Amino acid sequence: MPKFVIYQVLPRLFGNYNTTRKYKGTIEENGCGKFNSFTPRALEEIRKLGATHIWYTGILEHATKTDYSAFGIRKDHPGVIKGNAGSPYAIKDFYDVDPDLAENVTNRMEEFEALIRRTHEAGLKAIIDFVPNHTARQYHSDMKPNGVKDIGENDNPDWAFSPLNNYYYIPNEQLRPMFNTEGYDEYPAKATGNDQFTAYPSEFDWYETVKLNYGVNYMEGHQKQFDPIPDTWHKMADILCYWAAKNIDGFRVDMAEMVPVEFWGWAIPQVKNINPEIIFIAEVYKPAEYNNYLCNGKFDYLYDKVGLYEKLRGILSRNEAARDITGIWQSLSRISDRMLNFLENHDEQRIASGFFCGSGTYAEPAMIISATLTKAPVMIYMGQELGELGMDMEGFSGVDGKTSIFDYWGVSSLQAWANNGEFDGANLTDEQWNIRNCYQKLLNICLSEKAITEGEMYDLEFANFGNPAFNTHEQFAFIRKHRNEILLIAVNFYDKPVELEINIPYEAFQYLKLHDGDYYSVQNLLNEEEDLPIQRLTSYIPYRVNLSAWNGKIMKLKKANVV
C-alpha cells in the first residue's frame, strides 16, 4: 500500500468566510461553508500542500436546530441536539447529505456529486465518514431508495433486545435525561450511543445518539446472535454500498470498535466488490483489538491514537521522553504501516492551543516523526498547517482547545488563508506562513522520497543511551534507506539549540547494507539552502549535526568521492 497524506476538513467551517462569530450563533448569523467552497483553486492548493486525499467530515445528514422543513426534511427536537449545527455524528438520514452544505438545498446531492468530481479532477481522492454505531435520536430517512425500510421501522419496542430490532430498548421506561430536554418525548427509551443502557443518560453521555443493534445482547453477557444475519447488518451494508457507488475513495469509520468485528469481515468485502480500490480506516482505540480488526475485520488502516499520537503529545508537553518512541514502533512493528498517524483531528486539542503547546511552531519535531517514521499514511487537520489556536468560545463546548464540530463558526486562520475564495494566503501572518511552508515541504518530501515511501527504518536511539552529546530524553534519530537512497533524520524536542553527535552502530550498516566508512555529501531537505559539510558515515566516529530548538532535519546523503 503506497504512502498517502490525508487533509481532514469540516466543510461547514472550511468555506465559511463570515467573520461575525457570534456565541451560539445561528446559520444566518454566523454563516456556513458549502460544497461549492471547494473550488478548483482551493483543491489545487490543498494538493500542493502535499495532500493526496481529502476527508470530508460531516457529509451525511445529521440532526440540527436549523429548520429545513420547507424542503421536506423533518425538523429535529432541539432538546437532543448538541450545539446549533448539531453533531455530524448524530446521523438522521444515512442516504442523504447535510443540507447546510448546499447552495440549493433541493439539489444538495447533485452538489455533493459535483464535489467528488472536482476532487478527482484536482488529482485528489475523497474520503467520507461512515457512522455505524449509532443514529440521531430522531432518525428518519427522506431519501432512502424505494423499497428500503427505515432503521427501526419494523422494531418491536417491547423487546429490550432482539436480533430483529435495529435499536436497543428500555421497555416501559420514558427517556428522562439528567438535564432539561425541553419536552422531548421518547417512549420506550432507547439505549444511548456510548453503550448506556439506561433511560437516564447524563449530559456527558452521547445523549444525542441511539445505539444500533448488531446482534450483541449487552444485557446478557454480550451474547452474539449472528445466525441468521441480523437485520442491522443488511441495512448498514446496503448504505455502505450506496455511497461506494457514488465514486468515493474511502470511508473513515467512526468508532468501528463499538461494532462487532464479524460485521466488518462480512460487509467490507461486499463494498470492495463494487470498488476494489476503496479504503476503510477504522477508529479503534484498543491495541489488543488491532490485529482483529485488520485481519478479521478486513480494515485497511487504523487510527494510531493510543500509540504514536499520545506518545508525541506527551513528549511535546515535556511529560515523556523521546526515547519512548522506540517502544511504540516496536509494539506495532508488524502493522505499523497500516496505522494512520496524526497530531490533530476534530476530536483532539489543537497543538497551538493553550491546552497543548501554545504555538504551532513547536510541533515540527513531532510532525517529522509522525510523517516519516514509517510508511504509514499521515493526516493533518484543517488549520493545523497554519497554527490554528482552537481557543474560540463557539457555543456548545466552550473554550476547550478544539475547533467546534457542533456550531456554526468561521475559523480565523482558514479565513486568512482562503482570502474570500482566492486561497492565496494574503492575510496570513509571517508565523502562519512559516508553519504552512514547513508542512508543505515535509508532506511533499514524504511523498517523493522513496526512502520514506518504500524504505527500511533503523532506529538509532538505543545506540545513544548514555551518549553525553545526545540526550535521548529530548532528541530522536533514525535512518531510512531504499536502495542507494539514504535519509538520516534527527529531531530536537528541546527549547534550546543542540550540537548532536549521533552514534551509528555497526549493526545499522549490516541491516541497511551500507559500507562502513564511506563519505557522503549532505542536503537538508527541509532547508535546501543550508550548507552542510561532507561527512563520513561510520560506526567509529559519531555523526555531527546541529539542530535548532523545537526543530529537526531530514538529511539526504549521497556518496561523495573524497581523495
Give your account of this protein's structure:
Helices cover 23% and strands 19% of the residues. It has an eight-stranded parallel β-barrel with strand order 1-2-5-12-13-14-15-16, surrounded by five helices. Strands 17-18-19-24-21-22 form a six-stranded antiparallel β-sheet, sandwiched between helices. A two-stranded antiparallel sheet has the order 3-4. Helix 5 packs parallel to helix 6, helix 6 crosses helix 7 and helix 10 packs parallel to helix 12. The model has no long low-confidence stretch (mean pLDDT 97).
- The rough form would be described as globular
Low-pLDDT stretches: none
Mean pLDDT: 97
Q: Could you say which structural class the secondary elements and strand pairing correspond to?
A: alpha/beta
How many domains, as an integer? 2
Radius of gyration: 25 Å
By DSSP (H or I, 4+ residues per run), the number of helices equals 14
Strand arrangement, major sheet: 1-2-5-12-13-14-15-16
Number of strands: 24
CATH class of the largest domain: Alpha Beta
**Which second-level CATH architecture of the largest domain applies?**
Alpha-Beta Barrel
What kind of sheet is the major sheet? Answer: 8 strands, parallel, barrel
**What percentage of the residues does DSSP assign to strands (E)?**
15-25%
User: Assembly state here?
Assistant: single chain
Helix content: 10-25%
Q: Terminal Cα separation, in Å?
A: 42 Å
> Could you name the CATH homologous superfamily of the largest domain?
Glycosidases
